[in-house]
């Protein structure tokens, strides 16, 4: 495999960068020799020491705190994570507390972060730590990977940052940086190419400060080496960056197009009883938004009947009551998941309430809008509540 663009190589650019020597060919990639590796480590860590982000989980090398932050940061922006991190650590300050958490407490503290399987896996991993490791996190990447929900990246981050093990933490940031450094043409979305980046990053990794090296790559990837943008001319590693020096950084990383998202059209029933409460229902224990609460949601049909008539029929069949449904939606909510989009029309309905109406319907409840903190709602439902609040406010 030739991983360097066929029009140039490292050898052709020695005079234009800080690169002083050529090292071995690793997994088809021409890499630096020892002098350049040392120079790169020194440059990267000097920049990190001066400019590193002030993040709460970096205050101490607590493996539990590092783990919590890394799981939260999967698919979620740093600025979004910080308040959730503080809230989570207040409620579950140590691994024992997390291992004993209830489903409701877990989902409430995670409410709004999405990808709820993450926090369920965390509790299971915490239970493993308590039962199999005496309440103390294992200190090696190999052992950490045995915990539920901890893969190569997270185990590498914990092992290197908390325990100074010289292992890389390879995520999208790291692969983006290194694909540009060496103009690596391997598609980062293909699992078989991960070994290329693992080998190259492990070769360049600073063995004395592996945790700082990995965190420096994280910071670099979120500042100067951003996705969908060419390398920043002010990047502290620009003189080592082959793609930057050849004006090709916009071509890296190589990545296959994402799977096309599927759009699903739904109707949301916002039914209010005479006490002013709204009907909510708990979703199934498996699948999208498992165990979270929403208002009743129905997939839109292609029938000739208007949507409000379908809603009346479906609520009669499922809940055994007959609400008065407005004929036109009061609002619309769009929510994007990883591989699907929900387009939701919101229908307001009124109901004469009796005590036994929901007796036969499992996992349902009536809720006042001022009691939203009593249940765990996904982000899409919070959008629905916001739209309902705006409607009711304007209708006063």
Automatic annotation (TrEMBL):
Residues 72-223 form the HhH-GPD domain. Keywords: 4Fe-4S, DNA damage, DNA repair, Glycosidase, Hydrolase, Iron, Iron-sulfur, Metal-binding. The keyword DNA damage applies. Its cofactor is [4Fe-4S] cluster. It catalyses: Hydrolyzes free adenine bases from 7,8-dihydro-8-oxoguanine:adenine mismatched double-stranded DNA, leaving an apurinic site. Its EC number is 3.2.2.31. It comes from the Bacteria. SMART domains: ENDO3c. It is an enzyme of class 3 (hydrolase). Binds 1 [4Fe-4S] cluster. One of its GO terms (molecular function) is adenine/guanine mispair binding. GO terms for biological process: base-excision repair; mismatch repair. InterPro entries: A/G_AdeGlyc_MutY, DNA_glycosylase, HhH-GPD_domain, HhH_base_excis_C, HhH_motif, MIG/MutY, MutY_C, NUDIX_hydrolase-like_dom_sf. CDD domains: ENDO3c, NUDIX_DNA_Glycosylase_C-MutY. Adenine glycosylase active on G-A mispairs. MutY also corrects error-prone DNA synthesis past GO lesions which are due to the oxidatively damaged form of guanine: 7,8-dihydro-8-oxoguanine (8-oxo-dGTP). NCBIfam families: mutY (TIGR01084). Belongs to the Nth/MutY family. This is Adenine DNA glycosylase. It comes from Aerococcus christensenii. The lineage of its organism: Bacteria, Bacillati, Bacillota, Bacilli, Lactobacillales.
